[in-house]
């Protein structure tokens, strides 16, 4: 392939409205948080920041999901913080347990082995149910059925900048289905057979591949191996209809049958990301460079001073992950032929 052949003036990232649009009708969108009762006070920090930076202007709903009953304390405190309507869903047992084809003894032995090898969360059973749930079931909850867009929020995150425009409306108007802030490679030890399993699926079902997909972002060798790049799913703004699609449902079913959520430690981030990169055309995937975001240990902070000042961002641009060596967002710019952000070289070290 000759990269010079189709070199055109690279399009810049689509512009985002700086000023709030006139108060218009809300669209069908909600925040979604999976949490335990014990997450209440770290989650309160996240909610407070999202409210102050965004939702106090828009009053979107907030759906909380749990594999256990939420306590009164949890419901009362979160309802007091959220400016939209809060809803609480109990996850059905079938969405948070072992499918019948899983050999639970084998799964337990894997956890012990991963504990010894010190693989992050490798020893944890609940973490696996969480990853499987976020991959295959969050979007199937009854409580989400009337919504079109969602924004996933976790405990202990930070939002660094004011968001004066309605991001959900922006997604809809610009025909975006998946939005991210940080991307990076997955730990290979957690996903030894994931890519092989994905390939089995796409070889049998080539009809699901988007014509203008982003395979090149996932693989450095034309699809033979996975480079591990994934959108960090603790932040996601997306279209639920993407997960509800036949392509995604069949894909999840195939992965679930293969057992890697339990026999390895497949994360929902690579599972979502591979699907988005293969089943969506590139232009439906959006990098939110302007929100300013933190989840331990990485930051997203607009490196452009004008943006930071205009939006009252309180982050250190030197910590921005976008252009660092380990970031996959650099490659995202490359495969999309986007013009890099002004001054990026100063923030790559
Ligand atoms: P990390 O970001 O990968 O370190 O994982 P977290 O501990 O933040 O978990 C990811 C999300 O799932 C967070 O929103 C947690 O609150 C939630 N979560 C993790 N484990 C459980 C669990 O066992 N039950 C419930 N209800 N939520 C969980
Ligand atoms: Mn987290």
From TrEMBL:
GO molecular function: alpha-1,2-mannosyltransferase activity
One of the protein's GO biological processes: protein O-linked glycosylation
Keyword Transmembrane assigned: yes
Keywords: Glycosyltransferase, Membrane, Signal-anchor, Transferase, Transmembrane, Transmembrane helix
Pfam families: Glyco_transf_15
Region annotation Disordered: where it falls in the sequence: 1-23
GO CC entries: Golgi apparatus; membrane
Compartments, record wording: Membrane
Isomerase keyword on record: no
Active-site residues, record numbering mapped to chain: 236
Ranges annotated as biased composition (Pro residues): 11-20
Membrane topology annotation: Single-pass type II membrane protein
Predominant location category: membrane
Biased composition (Low complexity): 1-10
Family the UniProt entry places it in: Belongs to the glycosyltransferase 15 family.
Listed name of the protein: Alpha-1,2-mannosyltransferase
Lineage start: Eukaryota, Fungi, Dikarya, Ascomycota, Saccharomycotina
């Amino acid at each position: 392939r000759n990269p010079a052949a189709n070199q055109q003036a690279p399009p810049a990232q689509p512009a985002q409205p700086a000023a709030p649009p006139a108060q218009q009708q809300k669209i069908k969108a909600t925040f979604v948080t999976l949490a335990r009762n014990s997450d209440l006070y770290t989650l309160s920090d996240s909610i407070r920041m999202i409210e102050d930076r965004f939702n106090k202007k828009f009053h979107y709903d907030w759906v909380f999901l749990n594999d256990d009953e939420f306590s009164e304390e949890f419901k009362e405190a979160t309802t007091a913080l959220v400016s939209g309507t809060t809803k609480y869903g109990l996850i059905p047992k079938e969405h948070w347990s072992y499918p019948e084809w899983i050999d639970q003894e084998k799964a337990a032995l894997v956890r012990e082995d991963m504990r010894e090898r010190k693989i992050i969360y490798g020893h944890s059973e609940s973490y696996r149910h969480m990853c499987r749930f976020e991959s295959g079931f969050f979007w199937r909850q009854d409580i989400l059925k009337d919504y079109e867009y969602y924004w996933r929020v976790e405990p202990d995150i930070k939002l660094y900048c004011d968001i004066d425009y309605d991001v959900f409306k922006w997604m809809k108007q610009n025909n975006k289905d998946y939005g991210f802030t940080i991307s990076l490679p997955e730990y290979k030890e957690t996903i030894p057979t994931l890519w092989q399993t994905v390939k089995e699926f796409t070889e049998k079902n080539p009809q699901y591949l988007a014509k203008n997909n982003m395979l090149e972002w996932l693989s450095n060798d034309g699809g033979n191996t996975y480079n591990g790049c994934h959108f960090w799913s603790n932040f996601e703004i997306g279209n639920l209809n993407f997960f509800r699609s036949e392509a995604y449902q069949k894909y999840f079913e195939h992965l679930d049958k293969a057992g890697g959520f339990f026999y390895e430690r497949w994360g929902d981030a690579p599972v979502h990301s591979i699907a988005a990169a293969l089943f969506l055309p590139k232009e439906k995937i959006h990098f939110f460079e302007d929100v300013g975001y933190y989840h331990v240990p990485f930051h997203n902070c607009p490196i452009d001073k004008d943006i930071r000042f205009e939006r009252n961002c309180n982050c250190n641009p030197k910590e921005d992950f976008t252009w660092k060596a380990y970031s996959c967002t650099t490659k995202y710019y490359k495969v999309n032929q986007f013009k890099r952000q002004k001054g990026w070289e100063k923030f790559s070290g």
